Amino acid sequence: MSKGINIRMQRRSLVVLIVLVFIGFPVLIFRLVNLQIVQGEYLQKMASEQQLTDTKINPKRGTIYDRNMNILAQSASVWTVVLEPAYIDTDQKRELICSGMSEILNIDKEKLLELSKKKSCYNIIKKKVESDIKDKIIEFKNNNKITTGIRLIEDYKRYYPLKNFLAAVLGFVGADSQGLAGIESYYDKELSGEPGRILTARNAIGKEMPFEYEQLVNPKPGHNLKLCIDENIQKFLEIALEEGVRTHNVKNRATGIVMDVNTGEILGMAVKQDFDPNEPFEIYNSEISEQINSLPEEERQKARSEALSQQWRNKAISDVYYPGSVFKMITAAMGFELDVVNEKSSFNCTGSIKPIENARAIGCHKRKGHGMQNFVEALCHSCNPAFITLGLRIGAKNFFDFYKSFGLHNKTNIDLPGESTDLFFNADGSMSSIDLCVASMGQNFGITPIQMITAAAAIANGGKIIQPHIVKEILDENNNIIKKFDVVTKRQAVSEQTAKRVTQMLYENATHGAAKNAYIPGYRVAGKTGTSEKIGLSTKGHKDYISSFCGFAPADNPKLAMLVAFDTPKGGQYYGSIVAAPVFARAMQDILPYFGIEKVYTEEELEKIDTVVPDLLGKNINEAKNIINSLGLKYTVLGTGDKVISQIPDPLNHVPKESTLVLHTDSTSSSEVKVPKFTGYSVQDVKFIASKHGLNINLSGIKLEKSGAISSTQSVPENTVVPKGTVITIGFVHSDSSGD
């Protein structure tokens, strides 16, 4: 080969090399930059995912307490059972572990054998295992000297120790401990905590490596909540509501709210009929459950979902209703504030009123009319024509302005999920003259119970709209305060003087007017009844109603407000004065003294008040007899001992004078009686029935003169077997209180 050819070949090779260097090297650099910088984070993540197994560890959910630190919801330890195939090194060990776990956990053995052959250190085979099963697994491991292959990891399960108590407020959690309703949902972020991690390394062939290559990141527990709710006030409220539901055959549940009028704290909130948050997916209304089960299979699931949704719904904040005559306290406040009415203003009720020309006449509940009356009497009579007349004086624009000022056109923003807003005639507040007429007596517009009681609290506290709230404090895991919820005053709805004038009228109403079934001896109660027709929702041929009562006490220095409402009572009575007012009295007569509000009796009341049962436990029988005689009570002694070892009624119960205390002097003495029917009788008849059966009674919702009062509720159902001497609270209504 010639020298020239060699030189040309070398030059060509050099050119090719230069081209490769100047073109290929930048491409290589670009590729390296792309891999290390542009895609670096993504590729690192991919590598980590291939090299590490990340297993979530659930944190302990925060505890929910009442205001006195009584537990309402808590998370207790359960366990997750994990199979560790990487540590099962023999077929004999595999057979032993799978057989044992199959028997203890009731899991198919073949599935376990299949899992045990996977290339991993972590396979969950069962979650939420209780302590008794965990103990069996530990015993199995110890007996068979198994140290690896099966692991128990602590987890948590939500418990509600008081079952259906406060269910609509507390809500419940899902399978993964996430809040699904109520406080559990609204404060889910605070309660949940932060999950932990188990990071396990994998080798080149994808097999998980031993414990020395494992890292544990501990979970962080959730915060605790201290509610404004008082367990005892809630209990008094729920007992009274349940009595009302049972007595009046309420078809669409009942609700009640107790609020501190000066702070906005919700001390009690209940919905009956309710559910058990430990088993929230069970339908607790047996009638509805039977109806669903009778449906064709293709319709059943939809009906079940709708029933559960309704069951979980917090009626106190989510359901809009016509407030009815309860709202007349707000209309009265508007009239006073605008100076278009005073206590001595006259109104003539003929039984109906034709407010504008060519309009249909609107009737009063008293068809014969109330005749001439002043404004105080008109409120006590709950006279529709009087309040229609007042509404026209107020005017549509002023009415809507005050409606907004009382917070009725917006949500209260209470710290619970699912709050509804109002349903007014038009969003801009415009309404016709007829709309104004019916609105002034609480009809044809919708608000929620929480909106109504917040407005009523403003009447009680001097005209201030206070933000209602459920949670008092957020606490850390050691119950140190992280956040405290202070009183929030939104605005002054009406003047303090106006609020006091309306309060005095409401006191007259609860003492002498249509609301006198809410009377409580020793306390000055102020309140208003309501009976609203469910327009458009009535069953064919029948009218359905919501019966309600909203009031507060003591009237001369209000502390607590309460609203109770019963949706669709079917027991023969539907007026708020008959259905709701006695329930208010039944609950408040227990709540007020518990809250520390002392009774102040008039001279007339002092002559007829009940007697407090003395504490006789441990006393000599003769000493006990002397104490009982000094109080004007009677006694029955059961047993042959010389000391009182138990007594019925319990100490501090209230019983009428001449009631009989049953004293037990040995453990063998006992006497039981079947509770008779107490409803539908006069006071004297009830006393006779109680005496005949050896029972004591406590009278509720009854004025001192007791004339015309008929028993309507009893705290212990008929035919219940109870110890002799048990106190049965009998609720009375006045036969002349059939107005709304």
Write up this protein.
This protein is 35% helix and 22% strand. It is α+β, with helices and mostly antiparallel strands. Strands 2, 3, 4, 5, 8, 16 and 17 form a seven-stranded mixed beta sheet that branches. It has a five-stranded antiparallel beta sheet with strand order 10-9-21-20-19, with helices on both faces. Strands 1-6-7 form a three-stranded antiparallel beta sheet. The longest helix is centred in the first third of the chain and has 36 residues, at 3-38. The protein is globular. The relative contact order is 0.08. The model is unreliable at 47-52 and 203-212 (pLDDT under 50).
Oligomer: single chain
Shape verdict:
globular
How many structural domains does the protein architecture include?
4
C-alpha-based Rg, rounded:
36 Å
Helix count equals 24
Main sheet properties? 7 strands, mixed
CATH class descriptor name of the largest domain:
Alpha Beta
- Percent of residues in β-strands: 15-25%
End-to-end gap = 125 Å
Question: Helix share of residues?
Answer: 25-40%
**Based on helices, strands and strand pairing, what is the structural class?**
alpha+beta
Low-confidence stretches: 47-52, 203-212
Whole-number mean pLDDT: 87
